[in-house]
């Protein structure tokens, strides 16, 4: 029996893929409404994280931030105290590496095995089972989780011991931020010189210098509709984590830090809640 | 008869693809030695650009910089005075848009048609006939050159009137510089947090946030061999052109300008002549 | 007899100081109206730059930009052709070093001696005779001009041969731009943490970390009135000259280049014509 | 009786000024050796912070970092438990605002009054009694400490409630970092254009665009001796605190963040322990 806690945009799609592959799944979410369609497919409902722990052999969590992870694991009715020794917790939430290591230690203290396994990919890849798992922890624990991950993702990348999955997630989100901002400046430059916006975009997207994910932002930039898939303020928060991690590990990232501040300026100018690709709108503003 | 002037790393491979497709080609290069292998394949040698103009119906130029283009076109023994009215000159050199427009005007004054058609892609794509042509000029002039371009390239992108090909080339090189620098910072961050360099690279290159061309830099970063395919100082020069163009067209590119200075700092520290991917070595230096 | 050409905000005050010290002055300006108050004080009017050259032993120019300097010196009715061999031209205009050197060569070719002598200081110091002259050219030519400069300024700094005065002016304007922007970010940071704007300003201005000229911007920042003493777009232009000069001389200025782009972004957002201290308003914007 | 804890470069000079003005002072320091010269002047030695608390009416602390402050106040033999209710603690250490507020709360819980009063100025101003106190806390507590502060400093700036002194200190150190880096880039630019280093420095230091403290760095830059008055790594740490504070308070500081990374790069290249003015050496490096 697989436990799954956290049924947001990502989690509900991941749990659904487990169900469709024939796994038995016991679910919990703060709001039960989000579980309804999965219960119809045969999933079992648990009233609390603790109750998940009583029945599951392995628990996946996919939660919004460190505070929620901590509460679900260690709070009142948290699952960690109840989870039998020797079982495996796989946290897919995006959190900072030091928090991850702390959770790993909390698990270890209770003889629970732990993997940090944040995912690269958003709504559509989650739906299609095409996520990429960035995993920190023991190889053999990963082997145990692998069949389930393969149902939810297309690739599983072992990065090292606990914390390394979260570390790699920061690296990936840095690339995401930089690629989007560079693309935005490049289009802005092209337009300023009289090139057609759409031609510039097509040329870049058809070439080898643009990151593949930028194709998925094409329509947003073209039509100026920045409904959030990944809100700018979340990415800017990750960039601050990047800045802090680089400081702590004694490396300098001049470009990343400027990029961070440009997203920050866009936030100051009112774009916090929109998709982070709105950075194009900010940078190409003409008044 | 196709005229081809400029047989460097790129030009010799482009001319060779024309020959292999059965075109008759008349060549000129500053040093004849570089033409030898093409002459064996049946190309004709011209002693000067002027002599190319006497026999060619269309002339392609692939030269190092504006000074050389100007000299070959307009200097003593330049081809432009001798080229019969109505013929077509296709300049594939990477030069700045204002120089390109000036060449277009010089051509027009002599009733010569002109396309600026710089290419995206370096040595290997040139060899395989997989370049991307970024073209500025009249649509019908492009139609005339298209069959030859198709032999040398895999894509032909019409960007607008004269100068727009060169403008787009600046945009592409900006993306090149940014993607390489962002990748370098990301790997540096990952390593500082204890991730394996090769794992970070593989994870990023296997995902959707890294530009495809970065695959071709993988071995350089892994083995620390930065023999130049595209020397850092050339890219840094292009970034200064980007900065100047942005200034003239009233747009601000904060990230591009920092990136420019980081390449500039690497140049100051002795990396001018190495491949621009050496920016990784500079950014990850630990002393 | 001293010739003085260019009676804008700066030039009219400088010429006035010469007059008040008892010098005979012959004036020219595009619009005669601006000379009226000086003519009442005893200055002589010349209908053209050429006419100035016929009567002056030394000519000072204080003009808006390279184009105007070139036109006044070398255009129709320009003074350089008419100026007797051996005389001295002192150009106080702020122009780029390469233009200055070109003017020096034009003068030399006609046996005219030349000093580039841009000034640090704006309206009030010009009025009080408290400018700082940054001088490029021969020491003995400077000695000849020194008594007049002492009437208009409080300090005369010899920087080296022709062009070096203009080079130093770029350095000074870089400091101006950086100090203003740093002050603006510092106040913004302080306010964000709940400090009083005025207290932060007073503390910084009363300490050793703020450039003295910032005192003169205090009221603008406090009352939000950014009427131009030095328009933002002019300073941003100088920063682009700085960027270009640094590139040409192989040094990297990462902070200067970011600062340039932040002024550029402020320009893009509509602040071109306001005093450059408006950068505070831009950086502290909250929406 | 005044208690004084922490006799480093700053503290020993501050305590000495109190003694010389006739105050009775009881001292403690981790190493007693540093107190010897003050004991000869009549100061009293305390074996522990706790013992200071038993005899002092007011306690000043001047310590290296938050960890030491916390240990001296709250650790084993810490002074806070022993200090009679109603007395006043003045912390002059440079720490981050959130730590300061925490100390304020710890004091309040024990009915101890608290001022955060970090100082601007280093070794020489400390010696001459010319520090600037940046004070957070109640106005009437400040009035009580004022006579003593006046003996140690030349200015006392009340910034608001507890925490605001520390906040203002961050602002001051940001200005310090920016001014030094801007000055370094400006000299580098000047030298690259052929100006004499000393002339550039003199011109800037004699003008209105350079912060007054830069005069004290003149000899270091001229003679290349970067013995630390304020080590680069400490300033870079403060810049990371600035970056974090700006993030938390939703303002963007693009220039500050680049400056931070340039100091960080200098650290990476081996300049951590030298005076922060060594940034000039890093930026002007030519290889």
Walkthrough of the structure:
Chains A, B, C, D: InterPro entries: 3-OH-isobutyrate_DH-rel_CS, 6-PGluconate_DH-like_C_sf, 6PGD_dom2, 6PGDH_NADP-bd, HIBADH-like_NADP-bd, HIBADH-related, HIBADH-related_NP60_sf, NAD(P)-bd_dom_sf. 4 copies of one chain form a homotetramer. By secondary structure, chain A is α/β, with parallel strands linked by helices. The first copy, chain A, folds into 2 domains: 159 residues, Rossmann fold, CATH 3.40.50.720; 116 residues, N-(1-d-carboxylethyl)-l-norvaline Dehydrogenase, domain 2. Helices cover 52% and strands 13% of the residues of chain A. Chain A contains 13 helices and 9 strands. In chain A, strands 3-2-1-4-5-6 form a 6-stranded parallel sheet, sandwiched between helices. The N and C termini of chain A lie far apart (59 Å). Chains A and B meet through strand 9, helix 8, helix 9, helix 11 and helix 12 of A and strand 9, helix 8, helix 9, helix 11 and helix 12 of B.
SS content category of chain A? alpha/beta
Largest interface: A-B, 65 and 65 residues
* Average residue-wise pLDDT of chain A: 96
Total number of helices of chain A: 13
Order of helices and strands of chain A: EHEHEHEHEHEEHEHEHHHHHH
Q: What is the fourth-level CATH superfamily of the largest domain in chain A?
A: NAD(P)-binding Rossmann-like Domain
The outline of chain A comes out as globular
């Amino acid at each position: 029996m697989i436990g799954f806690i956290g049924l947001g945009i990502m989690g509900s799609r991941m749990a659904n893929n487990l169900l469709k592959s024939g796994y038995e799944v016991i679910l919990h979410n703060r709001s039960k409404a989000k579980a309804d369609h999965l219960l119809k497919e045969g999933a079992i409902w648990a009233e609390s994280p603790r109750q998940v722990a009583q029945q599951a052999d392995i628990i996946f969590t996919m939660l919004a931030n460190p505070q929620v992870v901590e509460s679900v694991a260690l709070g009142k009715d948290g699952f960690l105290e109840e989870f039998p020794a020797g079982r495996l917790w796989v946290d897919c939430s995006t959190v900072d590496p030091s928090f991850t290591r702390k959770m790993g230690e909390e698990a270890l203290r209770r003889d629970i095995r732990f993997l940090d396994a944040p995912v690269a990919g958003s709504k559509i890849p989650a739906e299609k089972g095409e996520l990429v798992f960035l995993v920190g922890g023991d190889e053999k624990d990963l082997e145990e989780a692998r069949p389930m991950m393969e149902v939810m993702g297309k690739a599983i990348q072992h990065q090292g011991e606990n914390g390394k999955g979260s570390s790699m997630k920061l690296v990936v989100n840095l690339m995401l931020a930089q690629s989007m901002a560079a693309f935005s400046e490049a289009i802005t430059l092209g337009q300023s010189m009289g090139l057609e916006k759409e031609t510039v975009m097509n040329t870049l997207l058809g070439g080898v210098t643009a990151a593949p994910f930028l194709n998925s932002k094409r329509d947003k930039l073209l039509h100026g509709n920045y409904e959030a898939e990944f809100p700018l303020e979340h990415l800017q928060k990750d960039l601050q984590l990047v800045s802090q991690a680089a400081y702590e590990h004694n490396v300098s990232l001049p470009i990343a830090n400027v990029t961070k501040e440009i997203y920050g300026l866009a936030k100051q100018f009112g774009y916090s809640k929109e998709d982070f690709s709105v950075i194009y709108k900010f940078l190409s503003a003409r008044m």
